Structures are given as structure tokens and as C-alpha cells.
Amino acid sequence: MSLVRPLVVLLAACAVAATPLAAQTVRGRVLDAASGEGVAAAEVQALTLEGREAGRARTGPDGSFQLPLRAAGTVRIQAQRTGYRTTLTDALPVALREAVEVEVRLSAAAVAIEPLRVTARVEPPKRRNLELNGFYERERMGIGKYVRREDLESRPNMNLAQVLARVQGTAIQYRGAHQYIYFPRNGRPRLDPSFRGPPQNACLPRLFVDGARVTYDANNDINAVVNPGQIEAIEVFRGPSEIPVQYNDSNSMCGVILIWTRHEA
Fold first, then answer.
1. Is residue 137 part of a domain?
2. What band does 195 get if pLDDT is binned at 50, 70 and 90?
3. Would you say residue 243 lies in a domain?
């Protein structure tokens, strides 16, 4: 199968209002290069520079698609549809949690076309309190797992334990109506029905809210600490090798969770 490999043309990179983002995303439309009409049921792939697949989507009736990427980085967009030549664009950089809006054009003939048009780039707004506390720098380094306000707002009906349980390598330990977060890599907490406190022999992560240590007890599980609607961001560090030095001590072997609350301007 032949490929068309013209240059990527960046025609516009305009600032638009932020929208809830769960991950870095490429979205837009696949268009017929001759007519400008949307191409339905086209296969769209994001490929790393090494040729590995980083995401896949199929266009709707109007040619629109949304393609979440597994990680930030530079990708090429490949689009194919019966009756058209497979198109592979040049490199397109996509930053962490950025949404890039594009138009991809397919041609039925082997002609030189400009297949990729970037129409917008969207990043979540940066919060001053997170900058001051080093959140963005740690997120950029990619050590640990990160949840932002935009992720929480996309799941408004979840409590804090349920939100954290969606983070890779995290699970909930239930004790009656109470919920305790733990990291399975550190072992599953054991339950003693006669004991009314948190799970015994529990390797529970240390919890900090706005830099201050918060403890678990029998009446206050993790959901009693703070409501998700009050949270600006969460950092999850599952073991000592990930934990920032200022939160890492001899009692942090079971991991650390940092919660930052909202401070509106």
C-alpha cells in the first residue's frame, strides 16, 4: 500500500477556552482533498516516530474523530479509507494533557497535498498554587501519577476513593462503609472483624493535604478527608523511589498521596 508523506503545515495555533481533559488528545476531521467533504468511517492512527501505535479512532459520518494518546510526545497521523490513498503525515508534537485540533486530508490520486492542518491547541490552565508547590515540575518529569481538576470534573459522581482507584496501580480496601486506598504492589491489607479501626497490617500510603500530613482512623476514611469538588490536583507515588524528597522518610515505604485543594484567584 502506498503512502503519501508531505510536510505538515501549521496554519494556526490559536488560544481557545480550556475544556475538561483526561489525557493528551488529537481530534478533528478527515476531509476529501478534492471536495473538502468529511470522509466517514476512515481509520485514523497515531504512530510514534518508531512506528508504534499510540492511539486509534474511526471517523463519524461527518469525518470527525477523537483520538486519545497513551502518552505525550511526537506522533504521525495515518488515515486510510477504501477508495483513498493511505496518508501518513509528518511529525506532530503533542504536549502532556494538550488537545490538538487538526484537519487531515485524503486524496484519491497520487498528488502532492498538504494533509494535516492544525487549527487549535488547548492546554488546561496553570494554577499558581500548583506552580509554587512544584506540581507541574514533578508532572513534567513523569515520576508518579497525576490527577488534575479537569479529570475530576469529568467524573462528577465519584467519591475520592473511587477517583483514586482509577489511577494505575491503586485499589480500594473496603471495611464496612469505609474505603481505604492501598497499592497492591505493597501487599493487600488484612481484615480482622473484631478490630474497628483501619485494616490491620495495612500498608496504607501516607496522605498529605496542602503539604500537611493527614491520618486515617476508624471513623474518618479517605472520603472524609476532602470532597473531590474541593481538589485542584492529586499526586500519587506508589513507592519510595517515586516520592519527592520532602515527603519521603522511613515511614513512607507504602507510598504517598498528595492532595492540593483549590485556591481561586
1. yes
2. low
3. yes
Q: Per-residue pLDDT tens for 96-113?
A: 888 999 999 999 865 555
- What single string gives the DSSP state of each residue in 86-152? EEE---EEE-TT-EEEEEEEE-SSS-----EEEEEEE-PPPPHHHHHTTHHHHHHHT-SEEEEHHHH
Lookup: cell for 81: 479509507
pLDDT bin (cut points 50, 70, 90) of residue 200 is low
Contact criterion met (CB below 8 Å) for 50 and 126: no
* pLDDT for position 11: 32
- Is 63 in contact with 81 (CB distance < 8 Å)? no
Cα gap 238→255, rounded to integer Å: 4
User: How many CA within 13 A on the CB side of residue 263?
Assistant: 12
Is there a single domain that holds both residue 225 and residue 250? yes
β 256-261/206-209 pair status: parallel
DSSP 9: B
Does the pTM exceed 0.90?
Answer: no
Residues 225 and 148 in one domain: yes
Indicate whether 115 and 26 sit together in one domain.
yes
Residue at 100: amino acid letter: V
The cell numbers describing 45, all together, are 492512527
- β-pair type (43-48, 73-80): antiparallel
d(CA 192, CA 189): 10
Q: What is the mean pLDDT of residues 232-239?
A: 93
